[in-house]
Specification:
With about 290 residues, this protein is α/β, with parallel strands linked by helices. The longest helix has 29 residues. Strands 3-2-1-4-5-10-9-6-7-8 form a ten-stranded mixed β-sheet, sandwiched between helices. Helix 3 runs parallel beside helix 5, helix 5 packs antiparallel against helix 9 and helix 8 runs parallel beside helix 10.
Length: about 290
């Protein structure tokens, strides 16, 4: 598996480095730091002065970036795999996505900067934009990383399941894990009680979802994973967060569905809420 580790020197960035301890040895590990160097914005400044100021700032940031990459390389787990360091000038999301395409990465690993929902609406979020544009799976680390043994895998349908199986067939994790599969049946009960037909239909639908989850679980067991499954009724985002807390999950593994689907994943109510309230890292796969 080819892995791209994007670092910016934040606490969560270093936690992303630590997270590599729980992933399999990379065939190729790319360490990347984006130099986001602003141009001087003083209209009365002479062009030569502005250019000299920019070059001085770029050189300072480049030296800081080289020290950061050296530090990160020294902290890599012993089984991380062969690593190469890169400094690239540009906005972080553009640099990261471009490098992922160039290196044909299977996984991007990065720390979340922790923007709240209001700030994100105003300024955007690097991690959200990368989830939108990334050509591969992306791990967003939002705090201290525990040993990745218990993983929650919410599934919406067959396309999610197929993508999850493809990703897990890469054997991305360093140690044995348990993958708990979750499907949420959105409650459609009418506001009045006693509707036997609606109750029966809901029960039948839940049984169908449970059978679907068990079928996926059997396929995961066949490739070496422990894979219990559960089907529940409720609001998807709430149930995902509830199950994460109940199971004390170390990671939420979620699927995306192409450009249109990714946009829904990033901006839609369910996944957006999970990303903002995630009690553990989130790994989004295509």
């Amino acid at each position: 598996m080819k892995t791209l580790l994007a670092v910016d020197g934040s606490d969560n960035s270093y936690e992303a480095v630590h997270a590599l301890k729980y992933f399999s040895r990379a065939e190729q590990l790319t360490l990347l730091h984006a130099l986001d160097v602003p141009r001087p914005a003083y209209p009365m400044m002479l062009p030569k002065v502005a250019e000299d100021l920019y070059k001085t700032l770029e050189q300072s940031k480049r030296e800081d970036g080289e020290r950061l990459l050296d530090r990160v390389q020294s902290l890599l787990p012993t089984h991380a795999g062969p690593s190469t360091k890169y400094l690239r000038i540009g906005s972080p999301e553009e640099v990261i996505v471009s490098m992922a395409k160039e290196q044909k990465a299977d996984l991007i690993v990065m720390g979340a900067r922790g923007l709240g929902p209001i700030k994100e609406r105003l300024f955007g979020s690097v991690s959200h934009r990368i989830l939108t544009l990334a050509p591969c799976a992306t791990l967003i680390v939002n705090g201290p990383v525990k040993a990745m043994k218990q993983i929650l895998l919410p599934l919406e349908g067959l396309s999610d399941a197929e993508a999850a199986i493809r990703f897990l067939q890469l054997k991305p994790f360093h140690q044995a894990i348990e993958v708990t599969l979750l499907t949420v049946l959105t409650s459609t009960e009418p506001p009045w009680p006693g509707d036997a037909a609606a109750a029966a239909a809901s029960t039948e639908k839940l049984e169908e979802q449970a059978a679907y989850i068990e079928g996926v679980a059997e396929r995961l067991r066949a490739i070496g994973y422990q894979a219990p499954g559960v089907a529940v009724v409720g609001t998807p985002s709430s149930m995902i967060l509830q199950e994460t807390t109940t199971l004390q999950s170390d990671l939420i593994l979620m699927g995306t569905r192409g450009r249109q689907g990714i946009t829904r994943f990033v901006l839609g109510s369910v996944s957006h809420e999970v990303l903002h309230k995630m009690p553990c890292p989130v790994l989004a796969f295509h």
